[in-house]
Amino acid sequence: LFGIESYEKAQRAFREAKLQLSEILSAFELMDGTSQRLVHQVRGGTKPLENDYPFYCLIETSGSNGEHDYEKLEKFLEDVMSNEVIADGVVAQDATQIKTLWSWREGITECIGHWGGTYKYDVSIPLSDMYLIVHDVKARLSEAGLLGETDDHPVVDVLGYGHMGDSNLHLNIAVRRYDKEVEKVLEPYVYEWIEKRQGSISAEHGLGLAKKNYIGYSRNETMIGLMKQIKTLYDPNGIMNPYKYI
Question: How far apart are CA 69 and CA 196, in angstroms?
Fold first, then answer.
């Protein structure tokens, strides 16, 4: 796990990880400082790094030789620190420490629901623009007077985390209560923003029910027609996971 001063440096770290760790790199997770601050605020505990950073990245390797993997990871960490790509980092020494580091990533979903609820968007955006949507959505909610520290503001904060390897971002809006005014600010703005950058409004969880009316923002009529044909071919009676896009 390491702390990074900017999203640009997070991208540099990802490129270096792919170059230096290549075949043993199995995960490269991005977490913004807001997500980690909220996790710590809810559950407490000792933070993995002494200082706070705008971004954190969690790397996991899965090679067949643990000693070899560790040496490559140590060299990578040394290189990115000496070139000031990352500001600080820590390497897990055993299974317990691995579990602890992953808990800061896996605990986000549970912790951000602490205040009442969460609006969630699982999207795919070109890597260069991936985190920009978090800034833009936060600014939009702030300008609408919906985001603040007091209970009269429905929105607690806006955060982003996800998988850099496939440009997959979890855009989450932590709220004290669900509010129609918040929803009007978010939709269809989020989908229009993604469409302009040729991203996908649904990355790894499919469209389901909530997003099925918005599929046109990331798929054209030809592609939608092909999807329907494939669905009909394998499920002519519509009995497999009915009413949902997959």
Answer: 40
Provide the token pair at 13.
């770290």
Amino acid at 223: M
Tell me how far apart the alpha carbons of residues 115 and 108 are, in angstroms, rounded to a whole number: 13
Q: Which pLDDT score is estimated for 205? A: 66
Q: Which DSSP symbol is given to 71?
A: H
CA distances from 138 to 144, 151, 157 (A): 10, 17, 7
H or E element that contains 51: none
Locate 226 and state its tokens: 């092909």
pLDDT score, position 110: 95
pLDDT for 101: 97
DSSP state of 43: H
59 SS3 class: strand
Contacts of 126 (CB under 8 A, 6+ apart): 167, 197, 198, 199
Q: Which residue has the tokens 């229009």?
A: 192
Cα–Cα dist 150/36, whole Å? 20
Strands (E), the chain: 2-4, 25-32, 55-61, 88-89, 117-124, 155-163, 168-175
Give the model's pLDDT for residue 204: 67
Per-residue DSSP letter, 26: E
CA distance 87 to 5: 7
Q: What's the confidence (pLDDT) of residue 206?
A: 66
Spans in the chain with pLDDT lower than 50 = none
φ/ψ (deg, to 5) at 59: -110, 140
